[in-house]
Amino acid sequence: MNRHSIALLLAALAIVSFSLLTVLPDWRAGEWLALAAGVALLLTAVGLWHAAERDRSVWQNAIDAMQAGIVAYDRDDRLLFTNAEFRRLYHLSDRDAAPGTPYEHNLRARVQEGLMPEAQGREQAWIAERIARRREGRGGVTMRRMADGRWRRILEQRLPDGTTLAFSVDVTELVEGQQELEAARREIEDTHRLLHDAIEAMPAAVEVYDRTDRLVVFNQRMLAMYPHMAGQPVQGETFDILVRRALAQGAVPEARGREADWLAERLAERGRHTGPRLQCAPDGSWIHIYETPMPGGGLVTVRLRAAEFVPPRE
């Protein structure tokens, strides 16, 4: 196989490796695959450099066709090569992109042009930190917000011969998708907090059951009305289990002596009353219970003290 064929083959390998990066949906979970693909791309660049040493046009055309920013510096941190995407990203002139240009020169030029938003307000300190990190050979993967607002994922690798290779890929859609998910999560949390505060502020005991009749939301007034629940698991339990516990602890005065029959009647009529249900509380007071089915399934229960009710004399 001649050098021309090798160059084309390695270019194809690079494009496949790069494609794995761009379609990966979860960067955190797939970090190993991102690094593997990145290393493949970096090694491809080196392979192209050596394989096409006598045919620079083939080599340059191959890396210019890649939709990733690619750059390499020698052991003295002088520019070896770039591709078209890298030059576009950092507005490199022919002079800046010439082999032998010092890394620090291009870094300072980018900062001066405002192409490094993260450096704004502390430009000299940021440059010093970046150069120190470079000299220590600390590469790895970083995320960078570019001056145009788009996001790039950057992989920088120091090779055994001292060459530093780096490539970056546009991950704006992935980042924005994650930001949208985070915003939605915060909105849900805010809504849940508002709902919780509203329920706690109500002058009644409130319970919300899901479509499987499991208790998902309740307020402190409910626990105060039924003190036998203190210290017991409540959230996530079914209404059936909660009522059985109450019966076992004698917390339903009207059911004493006929617990099984009372339970069957209570479950059969649950959510079917159009008006309030009157029930005696554990402390002997009377409670109006409103059970309202929700359109999407589930039930909302509101319990109010019936202070004005006077039970009939026997």
Summed up:
By secondary structure, the chain is α+β, with helices and mostly antiparallel strands. It contains 10 helices and 10 strands.
Instruction: Give the spatial strand order of the biggest sheet.
Output: 2-1-5-4-3
Shape by Cα distribution: rod-shaped
Helix content: 40-55%
- H/E topology pattern: HHHEEHHHEEEHEEHHHEEE
Distance N to C terminus? 107 Å
Regarding CATH, which class of the largest domain? Alpha Beta
Instruction: Spell out the CATH superfamily of the largest domain.
Output: PAS domain
Low-confidence stretches: 1-13, 18-32
Describe this structure in words.
This protein has ten helices and ten strands. It is rod-shaped and about 95 Å long. It has 314 residues and is of the alpha+beta class. The model is unreliable at 1-13 and 18-32 (pLDDT under 50). It starts with a helix and ends in a 9-residue tail after the last strand. The chain has helices at residues 3-23, 31-51, 56-64, 84-89, 103-112, 123-135, 172-201, 220-225, 239-248, 259-269, and strands spanning 69-73, 79-82, 140-145, 151-158, 164-170, 205-209, 215-218, 277-280, 286-293, 299-305. The chain folds into three domains: 3-170, Beta-Lactamase; 172-201; 203-305, PAS domain (Beta-Lactamase, 2-Layer Sandwich), CATH 3.30.450.20. Strands 2-1-5-4-3 form a five-stranded antiparallel β-sheet. Strands 7-6-10-9-8 form a five-stranded antiparallel β-sheet. Helix 1 packs antiparallel against helix 2 and helix 1 (3-23) packs parallel to helix 3.
